[in-house]
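hiii so um. not sure if this is the right channel but i have a protein structure encoded as tokens and i wanna go backwards to a sequence. like what aa goes where. can anyone help
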């Protein structure tokens, strides 16, 4: 199968920015061809270029979604940036539970990929704040249908459970299943998963107390980042906390947050 030509490459770049706000750099032809080759074969296309050109035809059906699923970067792992989870456990969650006085606290993992972020939080609460677990409601969303289905299954490979998950959590919260591990239902049932494209108008979700928006805006042009954060502000409760990825910032995106700098972690709290 031939390499991706300049016309097809350019068409794909425009498609990705328009549909999901992902900016592909100028020289990523190799990445495109490695991510789309299998899909091209499955769809009976003679080349990756052909597959890309089919996106422009009026009869593309579910092809656009399949290309998005193949092109997004789903890298994630359990307890990514451990210091953030420590800060949640020691200060943010106890304060939120106290403030909500008996009500549920609502958490959103936006751009959840296969769900490790959401499930890490669920396990942490079940282990360390077990009496409060019944007041936890976690929504995990992603633009990739494949990822949403993975969260709904709650099954992880050997490699995935070896990344970031403390060994005792593997024993406490997973059961061996096939050549991997199935999450136990007490963790799994705390997380609901839906498809949501951050750059489209959001459905009627929230309002949230805590939002993980990590390692996704880095792929977006500045204007889209601002629009996402503007929508987010309308889905937050007073005093809500937003988590961005390490090295990501609210600077230039919004002035409605104060940044709390903790050892190795930054939290962004919505100002009253
Ligand atoms: C690198 S993963 C980050 C996963 C997790 N938040 C973490 O930090 O470990 C980025 C995720 O963003 C999702 N994504 C990319 N563009 C998106 C969009 N426009 N709307 C929603 N999700 C998107 C991808 O499908 C992918 O699963």
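sure thing!! here u go:
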């Amino acid at each position: 199968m031939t390499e991706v030509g300049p016309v097809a490459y350019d068409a794909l770049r425009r498609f990705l920015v328009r549909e999901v706000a992902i900016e592909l750099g100028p020289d990523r032809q190799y990445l495109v061809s490695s991510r789309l080759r299998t899909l091209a074969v499955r769809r009976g296309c003679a080349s990756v270029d052909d597959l890309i050109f089919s996106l422009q035809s009026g009869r593309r059906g579910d092809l656009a979604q399949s290309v998005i699923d193949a092109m997004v970067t789903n890298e994630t792992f359990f307890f990514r940036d451990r210091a953030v989870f420590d800060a949640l456990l020691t200060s943010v969650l106890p304060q939120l539970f106290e403030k909500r006085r008996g009500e549920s606290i609502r958490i959103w993992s936006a751009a959840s990929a296969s769900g490790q972020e959401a499930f890490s939080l669920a396990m942490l609460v079940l282990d360390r704040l077990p009496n409060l677990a019944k007041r936890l409601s976690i929504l995990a969303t992603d633009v990739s249908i494949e990822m949403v289905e993975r969260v709904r299954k709650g099954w992880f490979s050997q490699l995935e459970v070896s990344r970031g998950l403390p060994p005792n959590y593997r024993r406490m919260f997973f059961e061996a299943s096939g050549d991997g591990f199935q999450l136990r239902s007490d963790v799994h049932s705390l997380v609901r998963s839906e498809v949501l494209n951050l750059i489209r108008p959001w459905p009627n979700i929230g309002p949230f107390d805590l939002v993980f928006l990590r390692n996704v805006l880095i792929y977006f042009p500045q204007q889209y980042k601002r629009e996402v954060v503007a929508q987010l502000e309308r889905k937050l409760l007073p005093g809500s906390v937003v988590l961005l990825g390490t090295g990501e910032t609210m600077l230039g995106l919004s002035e409605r947050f104060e940044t709390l700098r903790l050892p190795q972690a930054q939290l962004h709290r919505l100002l009253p």
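oh and The chain has a mean pLDDT of 95.
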